[in-house]
């Protein structure tokens, strides 16, 4: 993050507004309506305050997520760079979970590859090989993104401030060594209520999922923040976002890695 143009009080006020929107399940108008040129440095500071409110209420940071990795999402936001957010303990579900839809606002599902770290990764200088060496295993996962911004009317500053539009995430039970699968070529298929809802390959995440994790390690390194052993890192969507609501069932399979299932009630 570069020099900020807003005060800490302004960051806190907007972070509080996002926290209230999350807590009350009531979306708010885009921050960029008020601040059309919201710098990313300020957006990340707003995110930090939003996360601090949740941590103060009892949650813990358990990992990180990378967003805006696919061309479809980059085109939607008219940006050509990824972003990141924090994974909190209250976001975590295991495969097969039934998620109460009323706990979310406007959820959409993404199929991703999760990285389980066995060693810290500290940028700068992290590359694909370093990521693979630091990774204990990879697995299939759903990220259920959920914007606190009304009607998903987001620009890059909005989604960054809103913790990269994080909602909850669902981890598959199967895990494999990252050295035992071609992470760029592995094929993913998602079904929604028994019908094909999306397909993609690992290369959709910045060309290679481990490159996406390397980008995150190096970006966080500039801020003095490491990726830590024991954390899970969601490496980015491999296909388009899928809207979901109560009554929907999703399943996915990633070739050579495993599967994941979730339903909404």
Tell me about this structure:
This protein is an alpha+beta fold and 265 residues long. It has one domain (62-264): Fumarylacetoacetase-like, C-terminal domain (Fumarylacetoacetate hydrolase, domain 2). The chain has seven helices and 13 strands. The chain has helices at 8-24, 31-34, 40-56, 71-77, 128-134, 156-161, 209-221; strands at 61-67, 83-88, 92-94, 97-99, 107-117, 135-146, 168-171, 187-192, 195-201, 232-234, 242-243, 249-254, 258-264. The strands form two sheets. Strands 1, 2, 3, 5, 6, 7, 10 and 11 form an eight-stranded mixed β-sheet that branches. Strands 4-13-12-8-9 form a five-stranded mixed β-sheet, with no helix packed on it. α1 (8-24) packs across α3 (40-56) and α5 (128-134) packs across α7 (209-221). The longest helix has 17 residues, at 8-24. The model has no long low-confidence stretch (mean pLDDT 95).
Task: Please tell me what the overall shape is.
Answer: globular
| The CATH class | Alpha Beta
Name the average pLDDT. Answer: 95
Number-wise, the strands total 13
Q: Report Rg.
A: 17 Å
How would you summarize the topology of this molecule?
Elements: H1 8-24, H2 31-34, H3 40-56, E1 61-67, H4 71-77, E2 83-88, E3 92-94, E4 97-99, E5 107-117, H5 128-134, E6 135-146, H6 156-161, E7 168-171, E8 187-192, E9 195-201, H7 209-221, E10 232-234, E11 242-243, E12 249-254, E13 258-264
Helix pairs in contact: 1-3, 5-7
In brief:
The chain has helices at 8-24, 31-34, 40-56, 71-77, 128-134, 156-161, 209-221, and strands spanning 61-67, 83-88, 92-94, 97-99, 107-117, 135-146, 168-171, 187-192, 195-201, 232-234, 242-243, 249-254, 258-264. With 265 residues, it is an alpha+beta fold.
């Amino acid at each position: 993050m570069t020099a900020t143009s807003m005060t800490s009080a302004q960051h806190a006020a907007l972070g509080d507004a996002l926290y209230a929107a999350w807590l009350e399940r009531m979306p708010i108008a885009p921050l960029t309506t008020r601040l059309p040129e919201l710098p990313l440095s300020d957006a990340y500071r707003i995110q930090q305050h939003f996360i601090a409110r949740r941590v103060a209420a009892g949650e813990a940071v358990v990992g990180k997520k990378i967003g805006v990795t696919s061309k479809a999402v980059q085109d939607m936001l008219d940006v050509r760079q990824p972003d990141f957010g924090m994974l909190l303990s209250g976001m975590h579900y295991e495969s097969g979970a039934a998620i109460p839809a009323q706990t979310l606002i406007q959820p959409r599902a993404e199929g991703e590859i999760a990285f389980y770290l066995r060693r810290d990764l500290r940028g700068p200088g992290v590359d694909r090989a370093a990521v693979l060496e630091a990774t204990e295993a990879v697995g299939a996962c759903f990220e259920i993104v959920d914007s606190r911004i009304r009607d998903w009317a987001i620009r890059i500053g909005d989604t960054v401030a809103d913790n990269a539009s994080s909602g909850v995430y669902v981890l598959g039970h199967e895990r494999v060594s990252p050295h035992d699968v071609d992470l760029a070529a592995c094929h993913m298929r998602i079904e929604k209520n028994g019908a094909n809802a999306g397909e993609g390959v690992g290369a959709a995440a910045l060309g290679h999922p481990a490159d996406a994790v390397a980008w995150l390690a190096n970006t966080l390194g500039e801020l003095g923040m490491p990726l830590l052993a024991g954390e899970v890192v969601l490496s980015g969507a491999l296909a388009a976002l899928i809207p979901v609501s109560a009554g929907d069932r999703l399943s996915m399979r990633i070739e050579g890695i495993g599967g994941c299932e979730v339903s909404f009630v």
